[in-house]
Amino acid sequence: MPGSNDAVFVCAVLAGDTSAYGVLYDRYARLIRAICNDTAGNLFEAEDLCQEVFLRGFQGISRLRDPERFGGWLLGIAHLTCREWHKKVRRERRRRRSVELDQIAPPLQSNAREFAEPLLFAIGRLPRRERMALHLFYLQEHPVETARNVMGLSRSGFYRILDRARRRLQRLANARSEKSK
Fold first, then answer.
1. What is the pLDDT along the chain (181 residues), one digit of tens a residue?
2. Tally of structural domains, the chain
3. With contact defined as beta carbons under 8 Å apart, do 147 and 136 qualify?
4. Which domain holds residue 153?
5. Domain boundary among 86, 106, 126
6. Are residues 100 and 34 in the same domain?
7. Which of 73, 106, 139 corresponds to the end of one domain?
8. Residue 142 shares a structural domain with residue 113
9. Do 152 and 145 form a contact (C-beta atoms < 8 A)?
10. What span, in angstroms and rounded, lies between the C-alpha atoms of 158 and 151?
């Protein structure tokens, strides 16, 4: 379970046990990949970004002040890595105006596209904290205590953000269905 005993594994990594970082990777890889997918919009690029996040985390773990906060620290690295990637993409897009970002991303399989595209699009339009709450609680199926600890929130604060995200998703879905009529 993410959050519990992270400090033990962080200390083991700092002591030279690199296999302990594999445990941390297993705990957080799905979440980090989901965050990267929100930014990149395709699974291949998201996987590359995820690997970059974990590489940066491994290289910088000695700078982590509080091993208990590994999850939040790693999320910060993920957001920074995704921001840098997004800036790079914008620069490349300016240089090559004739190529659209959507043409670079491989298309989803047609049967998955009908369901996944609108949902991923809507989740991607949510503010970062709301996306994170949805990913942790619903998509990654973490318990509330774990999710709120990773986000650094109180229980009620986490539920407020989660509720706001659900309402905003509902409004986006309603707006999309109104457009399709």
1. 455 589 999 999 999 999 999 999 999 999 999 999 888 888 888 899 999 999 999 999 999 999 999 999 999 999 999 999 989 888 877 665 443 334 333 444 555 556 666 777 778 788 889 988 888 887 777 888 888 888 889 999 999 999 999 899 888 877 776 776 6
2. 2
3. yes
4. 108-181
5. 106
6. yes
7. 106
8. yes
9. no
10. 8
pTM: 0.59
77 and 131 in a single domain? The answer is no
Q: Do 102 and 114 have their domain in common?
A: no
